[in-house]
Structure formats: C-alpha cells, structure tokens
Amino acid sequence: MTNHVRLILQPGDAVAGMGRLMKRLAGRQTRFVNRQELRTGTLWESRYRSSPIETEAYLLACCRYVELNPVRAGMVGDPSEYPWSSFHRHAGGGGRFAWVDMDPCYLGLGATDEERAARYRDFVHSAVGAGELSLIREALQRGHLTGTQRFVDQVEKIIGRRIERRKKGRPRKADEKTSVPFFAFSQRIVK
C-alpha cells in the first residue's frame, strides 16, 4: 500500500522473534528507501501493531481482508491487478510469489492446486460481512485477538490473564452518566 504494509505471518515456536523480524524488516526498508531517495531519517510512523488470529475461523478471512485492501483503497478494481499481493500465488498465479507458504486453511479448500485456487478466488470475491470487517479492523487497530470468544478463552487460559475487548478511553464513572457537564468560558473585553 502507499502508506502501510500488511503481513500475515506464522511464527511457529519463535513468537518472541516476531519483534526482531519486524525491527529488522523496518530497518532494512528504511535504509533502502533512504538510499533510493537520497534522504535520511525514519520511514515508519510508529511501532508495528499485531493481532493473533484464530486459524480455523479467521485466517482465510484475514487473508481476504489483506488481499482486498488495495481494492477498498481504490487503487485497483480487482485484487489480481495489484502487483505486490499474495493473491497471485493463492489464486493460481504462482510465479514470483513462490516463496509464499500455503497454510493449512488454504490447503483445505480443495484436493488439487486448481480447485484450491478457484475456491480461493471465489472466497475473496464473495461479499464480506460488516461484522467480519469491523472485527478485523478493530483487532488490528487495538491489538486485540482476531477470533471467537472460545479463542479468547483459550488464549486467556494459556497466558493466565484475562483478555477483554474494551472501547477506547477510560470507563465512565457512574455519576458521569447522569450529571450535566460544566463549561468554563473566557472572553476578553475590548476597551
């Protein structure tokens, strides 16, 4: 994209290595762009954000979200027109994207490469529910888990901490809901 990058990665047993990977990736890209454009300084606005994905329920949905990003941004009319997308690999194009791994959810779409590619194309081009879209966006923006409540419960059990999706800001106090706010005004009098 013109102002951000979206990646779906499977860290395996090296979850702690994700931070190092992102640091290295950002550093290399910054040095490359700075050399190409004869500039200095940072390239990235802030730290990366991440969201663990419930594989069975949301991995393909998150892939579709990423593949349709340039379409939603109005950059292309179809994900196949975007040259830097893994859609080419998943939709049967292969070619320069042979390094993209095929995850088990994708492999479960069919028995042959052609069947999987056709089903994936159909899936990406099918309607995306508003609930799915907002869940994925919210998870990415706030670093929440992308998945069902069962997934959240499983992660809570593994890490031994409660996880909850909260709205932005601090919770309101009980008396704030019923009180009338006060305003202070100040105006200078011109003499």
Fold topology:
Elements: H1 17-37, H2 55-67, H3 69-72, H4 87-90, H5 104-107, H6 113-125, H7 130-142, H8 149-159
List keywords for this structure.
191 residues, mainly alpha, 2 domains, 0% strand, globular
What does this entry look like structurally?
This protein is mainly α and 191 residues long. It folds into two domains: 1-48, no CATH class; 52-159, no CATH class. It contains eight helices and no strands. It has helices spanning 17-37, 55-67, 69-72, 87-90, 104-107, 113-125, 130-142, 149-159. Residues 177-191 have low confidence and may be disordered.
State the helicity in percent bands.
40-55%
What portion of the residues fall into strands of 2 or more residues?
Answer: under 5%
How much is the average pLDDT? 81
How many strands? 0
In short, what is this structure?
The chain has helices at residues 17-37, 55-67, 69-72, 87-90, 104-107, 113-125, 130-142, 149-159. The protein is an all-alpha fold and 191 residues long.
